[in-house]
Every structure is written in C-alpha cells, then in structure tokens.
Design goal:
Family: Belongs to the ITPRIP family.
Mean pLDDT: 87
InterPro entries: ITPRIP-like, Mab-21_HhH/H2TH-like, MAB21L/cGLR
Protein name: IPIL1 protein
Subcellular location: Membrane
Radius of gyration: 24 Å
Structural class: alpha+beta
Largest sheet: 10 strands, mixed
Distance between the termini: 20 Å
Keywords: Membrane, Signal, Transmembrane, Transmembrane helix
Number of strands: 12
Strand content: 15-25%
C-alpha cells in the first residue's frame, strides 16, 4: 500500500488524461466484467416500494392480532450496497424486516446452546407482560396474564406464544411460513400486482419472491426477518448460514444492517465517481470460482476504506486500489487471519452503533478454518496465486 501511495504522490500532478494506458486498462476491465450497474438503484427502489406497500397491508390486516410487529424495511446485501457481484439477471434484492413484540409481549435474547455457535447465535424468548396497568392501558385488549383462558379464547386473538413460537421461543421457520402465506393472499392488494406476476419460491427461513413482468424480465427479492440487539445496528437474523442449518429457534447474529449503513456512510464521504464499489465488483468477478468467499472480500474492502483516505478512491486510482485489495487478501491468507470488521475496531465510524460488548470481545477470525488446517491454507494460497 505504501509503495502504491508513493507512486500516486509522484504522479499526483498529472491529469487522468496523461495516463492513457491506465485509462485503456480500466475501460477493458469495465467492459469485460460488466462493472457498470446503473439499474441496481432503480430496481432497488421498486423492491423497497413493493415491500413497504406489503407491510402497510399487513398492518391493516393484523392490527387486532398478536403477530410480530413488522418495522420499516432496511435494504441489505451487495445489491442494496450498490455493487452486486452477480450478472444482472441473477441479482437478488435482500430486504431486512425488523420484528418488534406485539402488545402484551416482550422479547428476551438468550445465549443459545442448541445451535452449536455460542458466540454468534441466540434464542429469542417470548414473555407475556401485564397490560392492565401502565400510563395508557389498552381498553380494547384483555390482559394475557390476568384474564381467564376461557375469556381470552372467546374474545381475543391468540397470543404470539400460541402461533409463531416453539415452546417459549420465537420460531424462524414459522415466521417465514406465516409471511409467505400473507404475501400470497395480499398480492392483489398492492399496486405492483398490475405490473408484475409474483411467485413465492421455496425457503424455510425467509420469503423469496420472483417478480415477472409481461416483457419476461424478472426481479428476485428475499425478505429476511431480524430482531434488534438493544439500540444497536446488530440484529439476530432468521437466515441461517450456508454451512449450517441450526434449529428453527436459533437466530444468528447478523451484521448486514451495520454493513449497509457503513457503505451509505462511505458514499456520503467519498469523492464523486469513487471507485470503491467498482473495485468490489471487479475483485468479486476475479475471485469467482475460488475458495475465497465474497464476504472475506467485502471485509477486506471495508478495512481498506478506513485505512486509505477516501480521497484516494477516485476513479483514476482504480487499478491501484484493486492491487491494494489483492495484496491485503494475500497477506491475510499468509497470516491465516482476517479480522472481522465490527469487533474491536478503532476505526469504526461513529454513525454505526454497536453493542458495548463488541469493543471488548475477542475479534472473530474469518480465516480461522485456515489456521486449523495447514493443507487448506496451502491450497488457498496456490489458488490465489494462480488467479
């Protein structure tokens, strides 16, 4: 990085037009890897409007019930961050729906011993709370704690404990099935039904939809459910990892909302025509088919965006920044260590809210599997050098 920055300083007075070889290379890269994705933002807006309209319908339909309260959506993942590594027809627009407890209920986050990942998994215990007293008691609601079971059955919808829980714990699979059923029944009530046909795709922990226009163009949408940890940008997510499918009452720690917030922060601070998203997309296409995950690449770029001044991410420095990214990844592979971005990070923008424990916690190592398996590290280095 220092070498690249020294070279940059020596060339800082040259204009971009005076480096035709670099300009030509960048143009070739852009064409070869389809780096320009101007439709991402407009399609993301279409998806966000659709989900917002569906949530409005849900509030009307479930106002007298005790299902989880669906909070405003948050766009997460690469497509909403503006750099999806996929081809246009394969992009999935992921929307995060925070869940709040309904009236007369409370959520309590507990360590999980069932999921096998104690550092990053929790269970969400649902507890009934008294609604008889308080500053504004609900006159139209019977208290689940202080009315008889017979009276409750006769006059009030079932509590959340009797619908979308397994035992006392919120069940991710039951919530996904409930929302999928709602989407199918509510589709005709949203304006988008006039322009798209919709199909709910199989998914056990989220709601996946395929929207099809009469022209044949398709949009893929995935709705994931989450419960906020305190007032932070860290959530517990219904979505399992690719490597493991834990019990349906196990919710995994998700950093997707914090990541989306980080990229919005960078977009506001970066110079016009910043190349950081193009670097991400280019490197993701270069690494496609290798053993390196897209998440490891994104973590690398997030680290570099806090280490290298944002003024040095102008478009004319694209090749240098790509080289920085690949060098950083190579060093992490050699050291068998890639530190998770949100743990014990002194360079974290103050706009991002993290649980206090994150500052004292032992940072997660995304390359822990390489530290435990020397043969896997050797293979990963060879594969990387071949690329």
């Amino acid at each position: 990085i220092h070498e690249m920055d020294n070279r940059r300083d020596s060339e800082s007075e040259e204009s971009e037009e005076e480096n035709p070889a670099d300009i030509n290379t960048i143009w070739i890269f852009s064409r070869r890897f389809q780096l320009s994705v101007p439709k991402l933002a407009s399609r993301r807006r279409v998806v966000q409007e659709l989900l917002s309209d569906l949530l409005q319908v849900s509030h009307n339909l479930f106002s007298d019930s005790f299902f989880p309260v669906l909070e405003p959506i948050i766009g997460v993942g690469s497509a909403c961050e503006g750099w999806s590594p996929h081809k246009e027809e394969d992009v999935v627009y992921c929307m995060f729906v925070p869940l709040k407890p309904p009236r007369g209920h409370a959520f309590h986050l507990e360590p999980d011993s069932m999921g096998g990942m104690p550092q990053t998994s929790r269970r969400i215990r649902v507890e009934l709370v008294c609604t008889c007293t308080g500053e504004q008691p609900d006159q139209n609601m019977l208290c689940f704690l202080h009315h008889s079971e017979e009276e409750l059955k006769r006059n009030q919808a079932a509590s959340l404990l009797h619908t979308l829980c397994t035992g006392p714990y919120l069940d991710g699979e039951k919530i996904a099935l409930w929302f999928q059923t709602f989407v199918i029944s509510a589709w005709s009530m949203v304006p988008q039904s006039c322009h798209y046909s919709m199909k709910v795709l199989p998914s056990c922990r989220s709601c996946k939809m395929k929207l099809m226009k009469h022209s044949g163009r398709s949009l893929f949408v995935e709705t994931v459910f989450g419960v906020q940890q305190g007032d932070s940008d860290i959530f517990l997510s219904s979505q399992p990892t690719e490597a493991q499918l834990p019990p349906s009452t196990t919710w995994l720690e998700s950093y997707a909302v914090a990541e989306a917030k980080f990229f919005r922060h960078v977009a506001m601070q970066a110079p016009p025509r910043s190349c950081h998203l193009k670097c991400l997309r280019l490197c993701a296409r270069l690494l496609k088919g290798s053993g390196l995950s897209t998440y490891a690449l994104k973590t690398t770029v997030m680290h570099l965006l806090t280490l290298i001044p944002l003024s040095e991410w102008q478009h004319k420095y694209l090749l240098m920044r790509v080289d920085d990214i690949m060098c950083y990844l190579r060093c992490c592979l050699e050291e068998k260590r890639l530190k998770h971005f949100f743990f014990d990070n002194e360079d974290m923008p103050k706009e991002i809210s993290l649980p206090p424990a994150f500052q004292e916690a032992q940072p997660l190592n995304l390359f822990q599997h390489l530290a435990q398996d020397p043969a896997a590290q050797t293979e990963a280095l060879k594969e990387f050098d071949d690329l």
